[in-house]
Amino acid sequence: MTKLLVTYYSSYGHMYQMAKAAADAAAENDDYEVKLRKIPELESARKAMSAQDAYVQAQEAQADVEETTLDDLKWADGIVWGIPTRFGNMPAQIKQFLDTAGGLWAEGALEGKATGIMSSTNTLHGGQESTILTSLIPLLHFGMIFVGSPYSENPELNKYKTQGGTPYGPSTVAGDGSKMPTDGDLKMAGRLAKRVAKVASGIKEVY
Ligand SMILES: Cc1cc2nc3c(=O)[nH]c(=O)nc-3n(C[C@H](O)[C@H](O)[C@H](O)COP(=O)(O)O)c2cc1C
Predict the structure, then answer these.
(1) Does ligand 1 have an atom closer than 6 angstroms to the CB of 126?
(2) pLDDT at residue 36, as a whole number
(3) Mean pLDDT, the chain, whole residue set
(4) What's the number of domains the chain is made of?
(5) Lower Cβ count inside 10 Å, N or C end of the chain?
């Protein structure tokens, strides 16, 4: 069995939807064991956002998803990350979590794992690509092997209308927050998860 972890942070539910689609698509293959996990919220962020109905509702919707642990990272052969944009970069929640993984870095415990990144922004040019590409930096420090979302597998990338999707990884445009991932966004999320699991299976043979 190839073990796939789909881990995400989501304030308003967009990355949660994408992560669920990714996990569900990979789980269709009986050769893959899939875990869906969320990155823990920061108390400062909870305090800042808990007056917003959209935040409260989205947190309730994901209340049953277990929090990601360092053991989950170690367990996985492949990891898909759901990383929404904060000022064109990863949220503090993800950075804080990664900064607790120094021990895994020191052990080389994440080396050779396949990985892919999904993102979301409010606006089309608000930083999906920059978030995915800058989030890759710590993953490369961990020795992970990056898997993108090529045009050949994702015909949606050639559609010139406002929706997510990049060759670096799937994404979605949240608009004012009320816009949820499109069918195409969710399909691209699923394809990335399958691709990461497939690459992870191959790496297991040779690494
Ligand atoms: C502090 C903060 C910074 C943000 N920065 C950006 C940004 O640079 N560009 C953008 O388009 N959206 C930005 N957003 C909007 C988020 O990216 C958007 O709410 C998120 O992608 C939705 O995903 P989620 O529902 O999974 O949290 C920001 C939101 C917050 C709270």
Answers:
(1) yes
(2) 98
(3) 96
(4) 1
(5) N
